[in-house]
Amino acid sequence: MLALLALADGDLIDALAGRRRRELHERYAHFSWDRAADAGVASSICRHGRSFPAALRRRRDAPHALYIEGRADRFAELTQGAVVAVVGSAHASDYGRAVARGLGRGLAASGVAVAASLCDGVCAAALAGAAEVHGPAICVTPGGLALAGGARRRRLAESVTRFGCALSELPCGTPARRWGQPAGERIVAALAQVTVVVEARDTPRELASALMAQAFGRVVAAVPGRVTSPMSTGAHALLAAEAKLVRGASDVLELLGCEGSAGATARHEPFGDALDGLPPQHRQLLERVGAGEDTPGRLTAGAADSAGTLLALSELEARGFLGRGDNGRYVVLAAGEV
Questions:
Q1: Nearest CA to 5 among 139, 183, 159?
Q2: Which CATH code of 2.60.120, 3.30.1330, 3.40.1350, 1.10.10 fits the domain covering 272-332?
């Protein structure tokens, strides 16, 4: 795929256009950059421009241009600093989404730009976590910026652009192409110094971002999951192949060499100082949920005071320590947030 994206435009048309080759060559010859760019929606930068990210410019498969929603100078500022890609399956479990959200929140709070494709699952959770703390984030869309794809994704893109940027290599208003998602992932992988796989199956498609990051010579890391979960097989395969293990944002900050930043003060503790003042029963319940006892039935089984246990769970949920996922299961919301 990377070799295909590196082809010159004329060669790409010759390779793929088939019977439409002549038509597409004529349309390409009359292409107008001014008509393609919609100044009311986004700014654009050419790969030869000074503000085009150096990490992309050096690659043969780099986009010819980027369309940016948000300030172009802000995008240049973000890409000159630390960038971490948080990637994974679009069909992530509650655990995967909670970990990704915590990573996005913790990294963005430490001033690290969180990069991800604008898709469901792990990526959406990481971007939402960064937006929660009004932190820096970069999302890459598979189509033109005016067509983010669904109301939920558009709202997420809007929240990201308040303090970060959304970008695409397709002109505004251009529908998404079949290759748009993996092509966007190559941009994410190239921009980031570290790519973290939170949850993914062991398939080339779900590990595409990690495989491209490895090809680009970037650091690849992964979050361990349950050995019985098929959604953890990809992360575990990467860890077996000597990817860096990540338990929270502080591990990523160490990989970046940012150990002294604000986010690294509570090393590997899921809640940092937030546990101070919690009764022992509440702490025990958090540990049990994190260990997999994630239903009210399991948590109250054998309890001397079932009503008290349910009340404690409600308090933890109200204070933001727990949330509800699929089928009403409890999820530790601050997992990985350090």
A1: 183
A2: 1.10.10
